[in-house]
Every structure is written in structure tokens, then in C-alpha cells.
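Posting this for the archive.
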Amino acid sequence: MDVYERFPDWPRPPYEGFTADDLFRIPDIPPHTQLIDGSFVFRSRQSSFHTTTNCLLQNGLARTVPKHLDVVREMVVIVGPRQAPEPDISVIRADASGGWDRDRYDASDVVLVLETVSPDSEERDRRTKPRLYADAGIPHFWRVEADEDHRPVVHTHQLDTASGGYVRTGVHRDRLELSLPYDIDIDLTAIDEL
């Protein structure tokens, strides 16, 4: 059997590309599939650094999250008709949670998105996704990279309404201490203990 005969029909995009509705309508799409510019993007296996860093940051964000916000992990955010990325972590308005069967959020529900850069997602996490998130009006964007000792370095950004893009607000290495979008204090060196 030819290797290409094993692929289902859905990966062949229509001329105008897939829509966010297609992402949830088409059966048997692999978990954590994203939609970028009308094309499906499949996630590769994640490294130990990626998984451990996201656990550290999710727990740290959840520890001090105010009641009007929630912290969620790996949930699709609809930022446009042909754009449905899945941030590693999002902080959303609590009134948008929508119960246990919720499988996506609108950009207007999101206060912060966080992307931990992986080898397969460098371009998307550093350039494409920040542009999509800024265009959708998400107020805060964090990009997480590994330093030479495999500790997380968090690059924080805030939406500049005048330019419509993100401006850097800090680079955090050992400790992530912020007052926006709420009071946050995370010991990034704690990754060594996980």
C-alpha cells in the first residue's frame, strides 16, 4: 500500500483554507491541532523542558489568580475566522469558563497567552502567534525560552493600543514578579526541583 493512501481526506485544505469551525467539525483530527492561516498545524511530542516549564508556570499563575480570572492549559483560542491557535497556557475571564465541556475560547475572553518555544514551533511562537494574538486584542503575551542551563526565561509583552502590537515589558530569568495582569510571583529556579 502506498504510504499516502493511509492519510484521510481532511488534510487537503479547500481553496480558501479551513475555518475555525472546521477544526471542531471534522472528525478524527489529532489532539492539539491548531489552525494557522487556514491550515492545520499538528503538534509534535513535547520535551521534558516544555512540559515541566508549563506545569511550573500554570501552578504559579493559578496560585495567585484572582476570582474573576481562571488559568487554563492547552485550550484553543479563536482569534479569527481562519485562526485558532492553542496557547500553552491562557488566563481567561472566569465568567467565560463555560463549564467542563468547553473546548475553545474567544480572544475577547483571554487576558494573557503564554507560549513555550519548542524546536517545531520557533517561528510560530516568536512571530506568527504574537501577531495573531495582538491583532485579536489579547492584552498580554509571554514567550518562554530555555536558557543554557535549561531554566525558563520569560519574555513578557503588553499590547500597545497605539501601534496594535506588543511591546516588551521585561525579561525574567530567576523570578517572575509582576503586577499585571495581576500580582504574580513565580520562582523560575524551582524547575530544578521538579
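The longest helix spans residues 48-64. DSSP finds three helices and twelve strands in the chain.
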